[in-house]
Write a structure and sequence with these properties.
alpha/beta; Rossmann fold; binds flavin mononucleotide; 2 domains
Length: about 425
Amino acid sequence: MNQPLKAKRILLGLSGGIALYKSCELLRRLQDAGAEVRVVMTPSAEDFVSPLTFAALSNHPVYTAGANQSPSAFQHIDFPRWGDIYIIAPASANTMGKISQGLADEPVSLCYMASTAPKMIVPAMNTAMYLSSAVQRNLEQLRNDGCTIVEPDSGRMACGEVGAGRFPEIPTIIAAVQKLLTPAKLVTPTDPSSSPAKKPKAKLLITVGRTEEDIDPVRTITNKSSGITGVSIAQEFLDAGYQVSIVNGPMDAEVPRGAQSYPVKSARDMHQAVMDLQDSHDILIFCAAVADFRPKVVNEEKIKNSRDNINLELVPNPNILRSAVEQKRSGQIIVGFALETADPIAHGIAKLQKSGADFLVLNTPVKKDSGFGKDSVEFCILESQHQLENAPSLALGSKKSLAQQIRNKIEEISGV
Ligand SMILES: Cc1cc2nc3c(=O)[nH]c(=O)nc-3n(C[C@H](O)[C@H](O)[C@H](O)COP(=O)(O)O)c2cc1C
């Protein structure tokens, strides 16, 4: 049996959440991968699954708040010192709040503070809790502290809601553990090829933001796109070592550091920039909200306010996604976006089939506190095999988790 975690010592922290029953399976699969596992639990976690279960599965006493009568009074030091890695899975909102703020009043948070090993958390909770500003703020703090976050999945949860916050699939967690425990390749001056900056994985071209179509010198036709989604995707790929070019229309978000920016204004400017840049890129993501139409005539002078009705004749803009698919070179991956407000799945499937893109990110801005200018969005990924009967449902998730899912899908297609 392939044992990628052979002889690794994993300290598994458990906090109180409904996903805790999945940690029994996680523990077993970590053992199958060759790891030795020991367990530490919050008092609340003990209400969900008994420590006895984990003691039996791990073949070792569990460190719980009531375990102070054990031979060592220093379990809060001994347990973290033993582990090559400390994973909290599931990480409850409460436990994340504590460890991000430096509180340590029970075994799981105590071990977090005392551990000098790499740390990883797997948040799992109801979508509203996960997307709350407190949880997102704590996650940001933990990321800045160097903790690895395994993003939750989107889908139907125990509470009946559909959205982000579900405990990820166990192979996803094990792959993340393996990655964190794999030593980074040493970069030496005599080995310049190993520098991620010099040997990027692939080149991404992404369109971001909105377009503006002039009516006269002071008025334009535009839309509400803020650019947050596109910038989150660009950042996700930059963090993973890709070279990123952004063709950005007007937007509220800032171009991330490290990306090459090609600012444009109208749909035709964006079309031209993409046609010029397409051949030198491996992945193209069309995330910008592009005006489908523009005024046939742009008035040179400001149209006077005469109080009469005026008719504005509109003509179609070039379809950037379709043009890119037409000149797609072998090996290139093309991703489209569709924003729909009515019958989204049916329209998304039709758009994907018509466009010929490799996959389509369908999103809808209708849910309160999501979409334009917000950090979350209702979305799903549609692929060529999807029909109405087997298409995934739209689910609310953070724009960061959308970016991560897009990268995962692209890496699955390209075999990276
Ligand atoms: C039935 C039930 C299910 C819960 N599920 C979750 C959950 O999935 N995620 C979460 O963060 N909190 C959940 N909670 C709330 C936590 O259990 C609660 O905040 C607790 O204080 C967490 O303590 P701990 O972080 O010390 O383990 C749930 C509570 C109950 C009663």
